[in-house]
From TrEMBL:
This is Putative YccA/Bax inhibitor family protein. Keywords: Membrane, Transmembrane, Transmembrane helix. Residues 1-25 are annotated as: Disordered. The chain crosses the membrane at residues 61-82, 88-106, 113-133, 139-159, 171-193, 205-225, 246-268.
Length: 270
């Protein structure tokens, strides 16, 4: 799994939850024998839905993701307005968002409060960062937002159509590619911060655009893996509260996708 948010959760990962080898037998053993009258009453009752049984549904994921995204957008809009008076605010949001992201990514059980705080911190980060980019290149933020949603929609359509399958080999190659990209980004960051390279560092010019396009491709592929993990969680009957983990994982990938597209557009304009 490429996204640690889903990989660390047994209900979303490719491996079944530990200790569960035969779910049907486990469920049968959990309930004692019932008399005929009770069985008839149960038979006549309406069929229970996944919502009635407290299981994860796609609606849960959509609602939680929309709510988290709304919190992020409000925080971003406020920070955009305050950026001139508090120009360094977005840096604090970046640091806090990174810390909360790591905490939430490695928690076995989701914490709605921490996930919403992460949305606020990332909104502060993205709001300030977007304002800086938009001051440099007018209209670039609108282009990046539209490209991000277009990529998300394309990935969802491809996944729902079944034309792109998420296989173990696919996820392994994606993990290797993302690890290599992370190492490259850290090296470039050190070279720029130490003054060895200026501007975009190794990410400037045509080479930077190529690297950026590869990063966007990896983010789009990560969305496919995220969709597959959510589908697996729903089919396994994961608890409804895991919708918060699914929402968090999707927003993490969308933030990565947006920042990569923003960087590509800036390099092209530059």
């Amino acid at each position: 799994m490429s996204n640690p948010v889903f990989d660390k959760s047994p209900v979303f990962s490719e491996r079944p939850p530990s200790g569960v080898t035969n779910p049907g037998a486990q469920a049968t053993a959990a309930y004692p024998a019932t008399d005929a009258a009770t069985l008839q009453t149960m038979y006549d009752a309406p069929t229970a839905t996944t919502r009635d049984t407290g299981r994860l549904t796609y609606d849960d994921v959509i609602i939680k993701t929309g709510g988290l995204f709304a919190v992020l957008l409000v925080a971003a809009a406020i920070t955009w307005q305050l950026s001139d008076a508090m120009p360094g605010l977005w840096v604090g949001g970046m640091v806090v968002g990174l810390a909360l992201g790591l905490v939430n990514a490695f928690k076995r059980q989701p914490s709605p409060a921490l996930i919403l705080l992460y949305g606020v911190a990332e909104g502060v980060f993205l709001g300030g960062l977007s304002k800086v980019y938009n001051d440099w290149y007018d209209g670039i933020v609108v282009q990046a937002v539209l490209a991000t949603f277009a990529t998300f929609a394309a990935a969802l359509v491809l996944f729902r159509s079944g034309k792109v399958r998420v296989t173990p080999k696919f996820t392994r190659w994606l993990l290797v590619a993302m690890t290599g990209y992370l190492v490259f980004s850290l090296v470039n960051l050190v070279l720029v911060w130490t003054g060895v390279l200026g501007g975009w560092g190794l990410r400037g010019g045509g080479f930077g655009v190529v690297i950026g396009l590869l990063a966007v491709g990896m983010a789009a592929a990560s969305l496919l893996v995220d969709f597959d993990a959510i589908k697996r969680g729903v089919e396994r009957g994961a608890p409804a509260k895991m919708a918060w983990s699914a929402a968090f994982g999707l927003v993490v990938t969308l933030i990565w996708l947006y920042t990569e597209i923003l960087r590509i557009l800036a390099i092209l304009r530059n």
